[in-house]
Amino acid sequence: MSWIVDSSLTFFQKFCVNVIKCGPIPNHIAFIMDGNRRYASKTKVEKAEGHVKGFDKLAETLQWCLELGIKEVTVYAFSIENFKRSDDEVATLMKLATEKFQKLLDEKDRLMAEGVCIRIIGNLSLLSPELRKLIAEATLMTKHNKKAFLNVAFAYTSRDEIVSTAETIVEGVKKGFLDVDNIDEDLFSDCLYTSASPEPDMIVRTSGELRFSDFLLWQIADSHICFAQVLWPEFCIWHLLACIFKRKMGMTGSKGS
Q: Mind telling me which PROSITE patterns this protein's record contains (predicted)?
């Protein structure tokens, strides 16, 4: 499946989307796409097929977000911790990532027409030269697009991001570019992988797990949290609308308190 897909919403689903859009819509949503392997086990298919279904769901979810007017999406695609999985599974995931980034480049006209800017955040030094090259081409190709932003966290953990940020600041002080007295939260935020993005308004985790798995821990201090009791490949527009509605109700409750 392509990164950008045609709308598959029914008339009633489109109606509900328009109703939700009458209220406050998150500007930035982050997704922890959990449950691909359990979906594969549940449906008795290979793990690789579960991951393919997970990517297909990502493409579908991105289209829903575009239709809802959500300008920025960040997805947790691959944790550094995932390198600890079996060699076969890691190789499968890297092969899938390579294929999908090549697909993105092959379909650049559609991506450019949608005005989507692709950013990859993470420790890219851990990836193969081939994959790094494709990622660089994709980010450079779309860097001037401003209609929507997709941030893909790949070879990422918050701990790695925070350590990398600290190292950057230390290096800046050593070279005389920074004064120790100028180090504060704002400077630290400006040195994160996500410095080009606003903090997420909402974070959605699928699979029913109640944890963040070392994802955007610095950035989500004020984010609305939604734990969806569904495996990622089974996530649907109704789950997304429910999360947005719950956030809206929470905002209303806060104003009334």
A: UPP_SYNTHASE
- Alpha carbon 38 to its chain's center: 20
Q: What angle do CA 85, 35, 59 make, to 5 degrees?
A: 105
The answer to pTM > 0.90 is yes
E strands within the chain? 28-32, 72-79, 116-121, 148-156, 202-205, 224-227
Q: How far apart are CA 138 and CA 101, in angstroms?
A: 7
Taking the alpha carbons at both ends of the chain, their separation in whole angstroms is 46
Residue type, 185: E
**How far is it, in rounded angstroms, from Cα 10 to Cα 180?**
57
Tokens of 125: 């030094």
Let me know how long the chain is: 257
CA 2 to mean position of chain CA atoms:
17
Encode pLDDT of 53-62 as tens digits: 999 999 999 9
